[in-house]
Amino acid sequence: MNLQDISKNLSQTQKISTIGKEGRKSARDILLEVSDALMDKGYDPVIQIVGYILSGDPTYITAHRNARSLIGRLERDELLDEVIKFYLENN
What is the overall mean pLDDT for the chain? Predict the structure, then answer.
């Protein structure tokens, strides 16, 4: 590529695609996976997830089945939004 080609490319608007958005798990899916992992280890998922949401302490979530890493992909307010949305839609 020569200088003229580079200059031509810089003068055009470039479209930036969102990387990984299509493959990103929803908050609902993450909560369900984390809940299953917590139950596998004998924990009460409600107590553990509430503890995590309130404190931000990731040790409330087991590392089993990569649950801690999964839940860490979301902001706590996203989790709370999902829980409240689900509750309001189903009650």
Answer: 86
